[in-house]
Amino acid sequence: MIRAALKSLLGRKVRLLLSTFAIVLGVAFVAGSLIFSDTLNRSFTALFASTVGDVVVRPENAGTGDGAPSTVTIPASVVADLAEVPGAARADGNVVSFGVFVVGKDGKVVSGFGPPAIGGSWSDAPAGHGLEGLAIVTGRAPEGPDEVVLDSRTVSRAGYHLGEKVTIIPSTTLATERRSDGPVDVKPLTPRLVGFVGFPSGGSLNGATYAAFDTPTAQDLFLGGKDEFNDIWVTAEAGVSQGELRDEVEKVLPDGLEAITGDDAADESASQLMKAVSFLTTFLLIFAGISLVVGAFLIVNTFSILVAQRSRELALLRALGASRRQVTWSVQLEAFVLGVVGSTLGLGFGVLLALGIRALFSNFGLDLSGQPLIFAPRTFIASYAVGIVVTMAAAWMPARRTARIAPVQALRDDVALPEATLRRRLVAGILLVLAGLGVLYLGLFSDLPHGGWQTGGGILAILLGVAAASPVIARPFLLVTRATYARVFGSVGNLAGQNALRNPRRTAATASALMIGLALACTMAIVGDSAKASVDKSIEDNFVGDYVVSNVIGTGFTPAIGNQMARIEGVDRVVRERFAGAERDGDRLPVAAVDPADVPSLQLEVTDGDPGGLGSDRVLLQRSWAEDEGLGVGDEITVEMPAGERTYAVGGVFEDNPVVLTPVLLSLDDYAAAGFPESDNALIVFTDDRRGIRLQLDDVVADLPIVTVKDQAEFAQEQREPIDQFVLMIFALLGLALVIAVLGIVNTLALSVIERTREVGLLRAIGLSRRQLRVMIRLESVVIALLGALLGVGLGIGFGIALMYAVRDQGLEVISVPTGQLVVFLLLSVVIGVLAAVFPARRAARLDVLQAIATE
């Protein structure tokens, strides 16, 4: 039986090729996602290990929330004390600031939206365990206020050379105000480039930019000229462990400071970052699962056709003594071999996919080009397990169904499914749909944990249920199609309609693969269109002021910009907004800050408490969050801030408003006292609409490419762009699932032509031309594609509306169905049907008539 199974497999290599390709794509997604994730993890682990000392001394609560340095600093005198600690070889103070952007010669900011733009003081202190950290690889260290060193990758991307002046835009106040004479000037810094830094033994900053000045200049720029540091590295003497040195350091630390080992600091930073980007792996693995589900339909269809075609062969084996189990496992052996081959090829394509993902994210600033790909054992185990299990599971039902056919019945080639089988499929499908609706309801409308998994499970159950019931559901559509074809295309159309009706299970199963891809695509189209419509409505209803000023990178910018704009004639008011991340009970808590005098200008609807109840350790809370947390006016809320634990009284509760998107609103003074840097994230500018005022506002930021001025329409467009980019990325990934579905149609038609070789020969013999034969097969393909499209669009509309209805309380109040886009999907399905039939139709037209008639 093993020899017979392998010989049968080798005799049908071409027929199984397309099914193998479906497994290849699914496994490639799994392998590529895991390879990229492991590479990302290893690269950041190595990076952080080489950018910390043996012991790191820092203020308590450093890294709270967003992980950026706080304004809480360490006096320089502590450095000298730590250098005298037993076991310490040296101690070095460091100045670190985020939001120090390097502008290239082309006028564009080098930094991206992901990796940070880091600035600070240059130090030659060694990394922990004696590792070689950042070092000068070309040139020399900076000396004086007009010199800087940059990392080599940034220099290459910016196009600078040694000795040239570099354009740098910091986000702090003092970087601009202290360097101006008289009126505040927001011109960027232009120090001279005197050195390149990098890792001499290999490695990179993974897309981050690094600009370092000498220590006095860094203190002047980022710490207001105070002789202080953000953290201190203590280097261990030979033979002293990090833990031993940390214990000695802790003995002499003043209150408010903490010491941690370099290993712990590196692990903390790496784990925080990997937690932040872990969604990438999950995101890609979700689409791997979608591809595998769609591929499973193709495999089921392929094996169903193949075992039906081999019914004579299998019946003969039964007659010769083979048991049902042997027949079943002979087909399973073929599926196992197919799974191994598909998984192996999928691993190879997974490497290419990982390279592609790495190249894609390098465009967004996450540059891992200097890091080798990591091939962990779990990648191989997961890839082969997924590929083999999915293939064998997909082949199990066709194998069992064939084994139950009586030998005599199979020898007559009478293998049509009885009506009772179709009724059982309908009942099973309805039960799956009902169960899926229940789980989907829990995921969308209940407060149970892991709602995302419940939502996904409900959608999958509904899709599988509709797929199971589709042979019965599709029958009215197929009958209408046959009648329509017969009227429009005559006898050729009638033949095409009858062929689609001949095996509704096969037709519906092939259409189901396309249905899944289009259902998800339509869902995302509705979600994206509704999100954009909600953004437009929200901005239209709540936009205050005349212009919004913000950083295109998404980080803060110097308050000097607001100061200068406030002095422009015709500007009535400039409202500053600042955002940061704190922590509460171990969870991240976004906070915002405004001047209490500006609350009326923001038009916040304070329904409980006093609209003026902001400031002096009093905060305003967003209603939805306050209700979830059970907080009201007069209650107290304790939050972990960079400067330590802070307790605030609730002075008021305001209705959810897109102007203030965070749950907690502080005053600017409380925000600064909490240890957050004084940089603005947004300005709302109120003017008297006099002519030319927009040009004056633009002139303020003319030399700052990271800061833009926008009116209401431009601001709305800016908010829509990320939604469009996200939806396009989803469509690109779903495109692979649709490719598998198209391959399924090609495969089904090709195998159907092989199965009907004799029938095709007889049709040709009685006068059917080659052109008519090709038309007939194209019409069959269009039926399959249209069926899948109609089911997919219908389900997608339902899923999309349900998802948007479930999130209506989160600011997405508008449900918009992009009718034009859905019509395009239906039209594309017709095109898909025509294109998918090209190869099978050409093959059928080339059959020799006499040989086809003689085929058994």
Keywords, separated by commas or semicolons:
856 residues, alpha+beta, 3 domains, six-stranded mixed β-sheet, 27 helices, cell membrane, FtsX-like permease family protein, membrane, transmembrane helix, Macrolide_Exporter_MacB
Write the layout of secondary structure elements.
Blueprint: H1 2-10, H2 13-49, E1 55-59, E2 74-75, H3 77-83, E3 88-94, E4 96-98, E5 101-103, E6 117-121, E7 135-139, E8 147-151, H4 152-158, E9 167-169, H5 174-177, E10 192-198, E11 209-213, H6 215-222, E12 228-229, E13 231-236, H7 242-252, E14 257-261, H8 262-309, H9 311-319, H10 324-362, H11 377-403, H12 407-411, H13 419-445, H14 451-489, H15 491-502, H16 504-542, E15 547-551, H17 560-566, E16 571-584, E17 587-594, H18 599-602, E18 606-609, E19 618-622, H19 623-629, E20 636-641, E21 644-654, E22 664-667, H20 668-673, E23 682-687, H21 693-700, E24 707-710, H22 712-755, H23 757-765, H24 770-806, H25 819-836, H26 838-845, H27 849-854
Parallel strand pairs: 6-11, 8-10, 17-22, 19-21
Antiparallel strand pairs: 1-13, 1-14, 2-12, 3-13, 4-6, 5-9, 7-10, 8-11, 15-23, 15-24, 16-17, 16-23, 18-21, 19-22, 20-21
Helix pairs in contact: 1-10, 2-8, 2-10, 2-11, 2-22, 8-11, 8-16, 8-22, 10-11, 13-14, 14-15, 14-16, 14-24, 15-24, 16-22, 16-24, 22-24, 22-26, 24-25, 24-26
Keywords: Cell membrane, Membrane, Transmembrane, Transmembrane helix
Domain MacB-like periplasmic core: 17-251, 507-669
Organism: Nocardioides agri
